[in-house]
Amino acid sequence: MSAREWIGKDFYRELGVSSDATADEIKKSYRKLAKENHPDANAGNPQAEQKFKAVSEAYGVLSDPGKRKEYDEARQMFGGGGPGGFNFPGGQGGGGFDVGDIFGQAGAQGGGFGGLGDMLGNLFGGRRGAAGATANRPQRGADVETDVRIDFVEAVKGATLPLRLSSPATCATCGGNGAKPGTSPRLCPTCSGSGLVSRSQGAFAFSEPCQDCRGRGKIIDDPCPECAGEGVSTRTRTLTVRIPPGVDDNQRIRLAGQGEPGRGGAQAGDLFVRVHVAPHPLFGRKELDLTITVGVSFAELTLGGTITVPTLDSKVSVKVPPGTASGRVLRVRGKGITKRDGKQGDLLVTLQVAVPSTVDEKAKAALESYAEAVKDQDPRPEITELLQGR
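Structure for Chaperone protein DnaJ, as requested:
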């Protein structure tokens, strides 16, 4: 169906509903009319068949929220909505207004269909070519991503790293205009610098990229020897990347404007640096807290005492209360990760009893003496109670 035919129809009238009808009302009316006029129930009735096609077409537009919105906007734009349809030749409104004039004027201005063309193109499932839609328009440069690997301490404390990149950048020889030094691009005579040319076909005017300048609006007679007229060349550059304190593994750091250069004077893209953190042999991490597991003896847990624990900077003394169970976590305030905003974590010390694989005679005798002294103390009363009940 052409744009002229679509605009000249009143889909609300076809379904017998008002323009503010709800989706349920539209569906209910469609089902009723489709059932009444279905070809299977009206064999040999061309009027019923035509009505069935008309209500199906109307429902296809009004049941889709996006298409209905575009249709309503077109009705409002051209003063439609009455029983007589829209004011176009061939419709019943008889307003003497030609939709072809709209398209022709839009094409003459080098802008394609404009808002109306986009609206109708969406409704009919078509679209303007990507090259035509973006021809001669400034285009933001693409974003670039790279990876860096740092050690655990650098991630906690922050670091400043040099980063070497080989990536597209504005050509240093021509300054990005694509022309050989001493020369300049000239305005394309075919499209007058718009990057688009228009052609008409019936009621429609189509815009497409200019073939002579490839949609750029300018012609380069003597291209730059370094970038071959593209205005962009690949070069190696060194950047300084500041890794903030407390960065997480796999976190991305954004460097604004350090990606690929833009086209037509548009801004450059961004550079994203993905950080990979190597594990530490002793320390782990839980958000802003540092974690460490420390081996202690049975006597230290039973009798209590003070143990020395390392930190990333130095060491701290940690008091172990008497009767501490193996696996208990002790917290040392303020010895974790400090971020730039002042937030600070702690050092979490997990105590784990260290069981010797062998003992000498003296230690063995002491352990046997201890076992005899505490033989009436059941270390697993819950299990003993369960076993006795069976």
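The two ends are 84 Å apart (CA to CA).
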